[in-house]
């Protein structure tokens, strides 16, 4: 009898504990925060968000180049190395843009739309030279997109929102465009050197060039 | 004359018979003969990677890592907005995004090493699974992260089973998974489970757990 009572108390105790756990307050109340400091205007925010997907598409394309040149039958570890590095760099650019939007008070909703399953633009290349040429075209495309953001954010006028975003434009031209132009020059130089060797030393030229890339030599 | 012809006939029969085996050397002998030919058996594919099914499973596993990396990045970004403002959670999910991205690269390099190739478009999972909720409160996000990491760990166990018990035994693939995946998974899972239970207890039955969550976030910023 006593045992039964004890059991009953125990059951009641656990039940009440469960009852308490079921009432956990996990969501915090909304705070009213002044929003007149959030000055980025819609057309500009839209372009910046699109750029995240652009950068990640570039990242995935470099990732695919890395994968292609890692194949045993292709065997160009130097090319694979620089392309894997570029893939992670492009991903870092996307993260930098997200960071900027967060700093300016953005991305408080609809975050799922920011990254929409980016896929590589291609998965195989005829040789190292054609991959380098594709990389240069890709960089030129990304550069045009960044310039496009800058021009939109300087004069977003169309929607009646007249706000020249000096800070964003300065950040894009200073940080991003500098890196774009330097990267493009580097790729063009590589294409030039490799292209000249291929004229008469096809396979050997690419073989030697690949080992230079692998050792981190400037080529 | 007829003897010479007979010898030539015999040699060519012998050569054709020899070349038809699945060996790189045979391909090379064929390619270097006047007949010529491809050297399609000169590759690094051996062991379990001879199976297209295993290859597809590894491709799927690498693609799952890429998908998860982007999902962790979105979870991280959500906690970085000024309304959420949880730098610790932001940092934790960013670390997971970075780790799964690096693991995807490791898997692709490994496929190259074993004579296989990556296919970025191959995925076994349902499309609906990609429609994930990212704008979660602290405890729910930690729970989600824990479930996602368990999924990745179980993915590694599945592949390990394929190359040890179910299909062709392949010690190298098993060892690669052990050294680069399974132990790290167990550590991350234990860490996340600990955090989830800590948060649950800190929230307890208080009507307003905001101070507890603030302090826990501050702890996360230092702990990671």
Automatic annotation (TrEMBL), chain A:
Reactions catalysed: 4 Fe(2+) + O2 + 4 H(+) = 4 Fe(3+) + 2 H2O
Listed name of the protein: Ferritin
Gene3D superfamilies reported in the protein's UniProt record: 1.20.1260.10
Subcellular location: Golgi apparatus; Secreted
Span of the signal peptide: 1-22
Keyword tags: Disulfide bond, Golgi apparatus, Iron, Iron storage, Metal-binding, Oxidoreductase, Secreted, Signal
Chain's role: Stores iron in a soluble, non-toxic, readily available form. Important for iron homeostasis. Iron is taken up in the ferrous form and deposited as ferric hydroxides after oxidation.
Molecular function terms from GO: ferric iron binding; ferrous iron binding; ferroxidase activity
InterPro entries xrefs: Ferritin, Ferritin-like, Ferritin-like_diiron, Ferritin-like_SF, Ferritin_DPS_dom
Residues reported in the UniProt entry to bind Fe cation: 55, 90, 93, 139, 180
Subcellular location, principal: Golgi
EC number(s) on file: 1.16.3.1
One cellular component term from this protein's GO annotations in UniProt: Golgi apparatus
Pfam family for this entry, one: Ferritin
Quaternary structure and partners: Oligomer of 12 light (L) chains and 12 heavy (H) chains; L and H chains are disulfide-linked. The functional molecule forms a roughly spherical shell with a diameter of 12 nm and contains a central cavity into which the insoluble ferric iron core is deposited.
UniProt domain Ferritin-like diiron: residue ranges: 38-198
Keyword Secreted belongs to the record: yes
Entry similarity comment: Belongs to the ferritin family.
Example GO biological process: intracellular iron ion homeostasis
UniProtKB/TrEMBL annotation, chain B:
Keyword Metal-binding included in the entry's annotation: yes
Gene Ontology CC, one term: cytoplasm
Superkingdom, natural source: Eukaryota
Protein name as annotated: Ferritin
Gene3D superfamilies per record: 1.20.1260.10
Alphabetized GO MF terms: ferric iron binding; ferrous iron binding
Organism: Cinara cedri
GO process annotations (BP): intracellular iron ion homeostasis; iron ion transport
SUPFAM superfamilies according to UniProt: Ferritin-like (SSF47240)
Positions of the Ferritin-like diiron domain: 48-203
Family designation: Belongs to the ferritin family.
Keywords: Iron, Iron storage, Metal-binding, Signal
Record's keyword annotation contains Repeat: no
Biological role stated in the UniProt entry: Stores iron in a soluble, non-toxic, readily available form. Important for iron homeostasis. Iron is taken up in the ferrous form and deposited as ferric hydroxides after oxidation.
CDD domains, per database record: Euk_Ferritin (cd01056)
InterPro entries from the UniProt entry: Ferritin, Ferritin-like, Ferritin-like_diiron, Ferritin-like_SF
Leader peptide range in chain numbering: 1-21
PANTHER family tied to this protein: FERRITIN
């Amino acid at each position: 009898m006593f045992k039964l009572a004890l059991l009953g108390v125990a059951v009641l105790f656990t039940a009440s504990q469960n009852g308490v756990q079921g009432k956990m307050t996990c969501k915090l109340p909304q705070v009213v925060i002044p929003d007149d400091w959030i000055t980025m205007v819609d057309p500009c925010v839209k372009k910046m968000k699109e750029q995240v997907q652009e950068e990640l598409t570039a990242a995935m394309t470099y990732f695919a180049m890395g994968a292609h040149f890692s194949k045993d039958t292709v065997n160009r570890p130097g090319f694979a190395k620089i392309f894997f590095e570029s893939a992670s760099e492009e991903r870092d650019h996307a993260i930098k843009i997200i960071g900027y939007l967060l700093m300016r008070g953005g991305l408080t909703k609809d975050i799922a739309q920011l990254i929409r399953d980016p896929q590589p633009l291609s998965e195989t290349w005829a040789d190292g030279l054609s991959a380098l040429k594709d990389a240069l075209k890709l960089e030129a495309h990304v550069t045009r997109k960044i310039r496009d953001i800058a021009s939109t954010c300087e004069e977003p006028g169309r929607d009646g929102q007249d706000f020249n975003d000096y800070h964003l434009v300065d950040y894009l031209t200073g940080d991003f465009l500098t890196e774009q132009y330097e990267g493009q020059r580097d790729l063009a130089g590589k294409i030039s050197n490799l292209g000249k060797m291929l004229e008469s030393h096809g396979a050997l030229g690419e073989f030697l060039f690949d080992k230079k890339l692998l050792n981190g030599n400037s080529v | 004359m007829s003897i010479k012809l007979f010898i030539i006939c015999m040699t060519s029969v012998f050569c054709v018979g020899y070349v038809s085996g699945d060996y790189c050397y045979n391909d090379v002998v064929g390619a270097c003969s006047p007949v010529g030919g491809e050297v399609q058996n000169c590759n690094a594919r051996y062991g379990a990677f001879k199976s297209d099914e295993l290859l597809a499973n590894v491709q799927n596993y690498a693609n799952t890592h890429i998908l998860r990396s982007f999902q962790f990045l979105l979870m991280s970004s959500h906690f970085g907005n000024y309304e959420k403002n949880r730098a610790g959670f932001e940092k934790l999910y960013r670390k997971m995004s970075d780790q799964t991205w690096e693991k995807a690269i490791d898997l692709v390099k490994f496929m190259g090493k074993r004579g296989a190739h990556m296919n970025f478009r191959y995925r076994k999972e349902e499309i609906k699974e990609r429609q994930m909720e990212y704008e979660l409160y602290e405890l729910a996000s930690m729970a989600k992260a824990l479930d996602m990491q368990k999924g990745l760990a179980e993915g590694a166990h599945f592949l390990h089973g394929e190359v040890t018990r179910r299909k062709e035994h392949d010690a190298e693939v098993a060892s690669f998974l052990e050294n680069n995946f399974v132990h790290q998974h167990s550590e991350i899972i234990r860490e996340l489970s600990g955090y989830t239970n800590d948060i649950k207890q800190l929230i307890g039955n208080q009507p307003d757990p905001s101070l507890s969550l603030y302090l826990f976030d501050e702890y996360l910023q230092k702990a990671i």
